[in-house]
């Protein structure tokens, strides 16, 4: 039985345990303190050597990309663009000029002229020598686009036909203005190659069979739709040798390129004969099963063109086969996006033919200038010596280009709207795809849409942008006499356009 003393509730055994434990604790606390100190000192050592046994610590997972940068799980419904708000604030001229003017600084020699306008009202918001005639480089294609859409119409197509020749056993391949022919089957989903020579050859065989034609067939080519010199004397020999352009004919494969993926270097010097040779090869393949053979070589036909800018002569009983190009609107888009000189010159000649003028260089320049004037834009001061912008003799002002862009974006002629899809998008498409990547211009990526222009001492940028307040602005900046290759000049143009995109300049 355990003995207790007084009112103490603890049994002696518990009391002795507490007392003995306290004595032991007093005797062992120095050892415990030493052990704790060793543990504290050991932890850093373990952390230092552990990676050697366990390998490096895996990197932290990257933060999740924002939703708008992630690949969509499903396609969203087409919503289109909202109509512009005419009540959106118009930038003040003083504020916008303060933003843009310091940025248009030439890197080395030369200088920039420029203009910014409100698209809806035409109000000038920035003007630096905007009425001065300047060498515009490929901004010239904006004028050609306007002329082609006004004279030919956005939905017009060009026919390449094959007709019975002047003698038995002959067929005539007639160029009707399509310089974007493909060598293979027609592809309705493409602009370049929309009409294919393999398809035309197969249809020609069917037409010959329907006529009971057998034996050997000779291919002739009729390229008489275009007249005058095939090479513009205003073009520099070095540009032609570099493949910037080639002699003009009313039919060509791949916009007069050997390979559509190779846009520099040598080009066919006779695109009509080159196309006819490819057609003859395709006709030989298609006709073999039908007992037809094709004579070696191709020749020019002495006859007049049976196709033309009116879409060809498909109703003529002499027509054996026909293929049609992509629409004028689609071709204009391609011309602007890729800055295709050959296509621009062809469209200029076709616009001339549509207005009763010769399909020559002089006819093209006269037709383009006349159509700009007919659109209500003063054009008397213009000097045009080509319609692609390769020539140094052209003179057009920044104000005239801005008015052309304004007519396309906000004018009353709905046909001109078809050009807007062709404007390169900053940092994304066409001749602007590799620009707007640095910090001072990234704010304009995806927002600025503009046609570029580049020659040795010339840079230009004309287009449109919706500013931070939702106001549509049109602009044109042109640099002449610039130091060749100076990196800062393109950046100056891009910074100025970026400033417009960010502008809430009240």
Automatic annotation (TrEMBL):
Region (Disordered): 60-79
Membrane-spanning parts: 32-54
Gene Ontology BP terms: peptidoglycan metabolic process; proteolysis
GO function term, MF aspect, one: serine-type carboxypeptidase activity
Keyword terms, alphabetized: Carboxypeptidase, Hydrolase, Membrane, Protease, Transmembrane, Transmembrane helix
Pfam families: Peptidase_S13
Lineage top rank: taxon: Bacteria
This protein's record includes keyword Transmembrane helix: yes
Family assignment from sequence similarity: Belongs to the peptidase S13 family.
PANTHER family noted in UniProt: D-ALANYL-D-ALANINE CARBOXYPEPTIDASE (PTHR30023), PENICILLIN-SENSITIVE CARBOXYPEPTIDASE A (PTHR30023:SF0)
Protein known as: D-alanyl-D-alanine carboxypeptidase/D-alanyl-D-alanine-endopeptidase
Source organism (scientific name): Arthrobacter nitrophenolicus
